[in-house]
Specification:
about 375 residues, alpha/beta, D-Maltodextrin-Binding Protein, domain 2, 2 domains, 5-stranded mixed beta sheet, 10 strands, about 45% helix, globular
C-alpha cells in the first residue's frame, strides 16, 4: 500500500471517528427523538457506507435507536408540547438546532416576557415541525426557509392549516457549495461539473441533520441520477459536524462540496461558491418566513402581530450565528444584549401591539 493510500485511509478513519463521537454530542446526528423510521431508512439505503461509518458498538446502538424511533416518532408531536398547552397569552415555537433560529426564538421569548406573555420552544425536525403547526400542536415558526422547505410545508399551506405571516429575512441562499479555491483550481462552478471530478470528492456531498429538506433534495438528485450523481453519497450528520469537516479540509485546501446557506458565518470564514443548477433540481431559498397555525392569530392577535412584524437583515443574523457558534456566547446573553442595544428596532416590531394587560407594547421596551 502506498504512502498516499495510507494517508487517505487515515484521513477517512478520522472523518468516521468524528461522526462516531462529536456529532452525537451535538444535536442532530442521530436525533431520533424527532425523526421517523421512514425518514431514517431512505438515508441509510442511499449508501452501504452510511452504516459502515460506525464501529460495531455504535452500530448496535444506532439500530436499537432506529427501532425505538419507529415506535416513538408517532407520539413525538403529542409529547412535545404536552406540558405547554396552547392558550391565550402563550406561543409555542418550533425550533431546529440552527444558531440564528435559536437566537431569534430567545429574543422573542425575552420580549414577550416583558409584555406579560409566555413562549415555549420545542425542537422538532422540519417535517415534524410542519406537521405540528398544521395539527395545532405548535403555534409559530420563525425559520421557514422558502422555497427550500416547500416539500414539507406546501400541502399544509394549500389546505390552509398553516399560514404565512410575514417575511423575516430576504436574500437568503441555500444550496450545495464549494470553497472558491475549488471553483478556481478545479473548475467546479455548477452541479453539472461535479461528476467528472467525482474522485476529488470521494463521490461524497456533506450534509446536515437528517430530515432537513436540503438533505432530501440531494438524496432526490442521487436517486434520479441528476447531473450523473447516481453513484454519489450524501453524508448526513449534524451542522456542527459538517462544518468541522469543512474546516479541516479547507485548512488543507482539499476539495469538498457541502450544503451551504446564508446568513451564516461560513460565508465569512470561507469564500464560497454556490453551485449553479442549470437543470433546476434545487429549489434554492430566497427568504426566511414566519408561519402560523391557522387558528393562532385569532386567539393571540397581539403576539401574532409582533411576530409578523419582525424584520432581520442578513448581517445581523450572521453576527448572532458567529457569536453563538464560534465565540460560544450563550443565546440568552446574545438576545438580551441585542435587545438593550436596539430598543428602537424592537419597538418597530411592536407597533400596534398591546401587552397582556392591554397597554401599548412599545412602552415596555426601555
Amino acid at each position: 500500500m502506498t504512502s498516499a493510500t495510507n494517508r487517505r485511509t487515515a484521513e477517512k478513519q478520522s472523518w468516521k471517528q468524528g461522526f462516531e463521537v462529536g456529532p452525537q454530542q451535538e444535536k442532530g446526528f442521530f436525533d431520533f427523538h424527532d425523526e421517523s423510521f421512514s425518514a431514517i431508512f431512505p438515508a441509510a439505503s442511499t449508501s452501504e457506507r452510511f452504516f459502515m461509518r460506525f464501529r460495531p458498538r455504535v452500530l448496535i446502538v444506532a439500530l436499537i435507536a432506529v427501532v425505538t424511533a419507529a415506535t416513538s416518532a408517532a407520539c413525538t408531536l403529542q409529547q412535545g408540547f404536552q406540558d405547554n398547552k396552547s392558550g391565550e397569552n402563550v406561543v409555542r415555537l418550533v425550533q431546529q438546532p440552527w444558531e440564528d433560529l435559536i437566537v431569534e426564538n430567545e429574543i422573542v421569548s425575552q420580549v414577550l416576557s416583558k409584555l406579560g406573555y409566555r413562549a415555549h420552544v420545542q425542537e422538532l425536525s422540519v417535517p415534524l415541525g410542519a406537521q405540528a403547526l398544521a395539527d395545532g400542536q405548535a403555534d409559530a415558526y420563525l425559520g421557514n426557509w422558502w422555497p427550500s422547505q416547500q416539500s414539507a410545508y406546501q400541502q399544509y399551506l394549500d389546505s390552509g392549516q398553516v399560514e404565512v405571516a410575514g417575511t423575516m429575512v430576504t436574500g437568503a441562499q441555500y444550496a450545495p457549495v464549494v470553497p472558491d479555491y475549488v471553483a478556481q483550481e478545479y473548475g467546479i462552478r455548477s452541479l453539472a461539473d461535479l461528476d467528472a471530478k467525482a474522485h476529488l470528492f470521494d463521490n461524497e456531498i456533506l450534509g446536515i441533520e437528517q430530515g432537513t429538506p436540503g438533505n432530501q433534495y440531494i438524496l432526490d438528485a442521487i436517486r434520479d441520477d441528476s447531473y450523473g450523481l447516481g453513484d454519489w453519497n450524501l453524508v448526513q450528520s449534524s451542522t456542527a459536524a459538517m462544518l468541522s469537516e469543512v474546516q479541516r479540509r479547507a485548512g488543507e485546501r482539499k476539495p469538498v462540496v457541502f450544503l451551504g446557506w446564508s446568513p451564516h458565518w461560513m460565508n465569512v470564514e470561507w469564500d464560497l461558491h454556490y453551485l449553479d443548477d442549470p437543470q433546476d433540481v434545487w429549489p434554492g431559498s430566497g427568504e426566511i418566513r414566519v408561519v402560523f397555525n391557522e387558528d393562532f392569530a385569532g386567539k393571540n392577535p397581539d403576539i401574532a402581530k409582533f411576530l409578523s412584524q419582525i424584520r432581520i437583515d442578513r448581517d445581523t443574523a450572521s453576527d448572532w450565528i458567529f457569536r453563538l457558534s464560534k465565540e460560544k456566547d450563550p443565546a440568552p446573553q446574545i438576545a438580551s444584549e441585542w435587545i438593550r442595544a436596539h430598543p428602537d428596532e424592537v419597538r418597530k416590531w411592536l407597533r400596534g401591539v398591546r401587552t397582556a394587560d392591554g397597554e401599548p407594547a412599545p412602552a415596555a421596551i426601555s
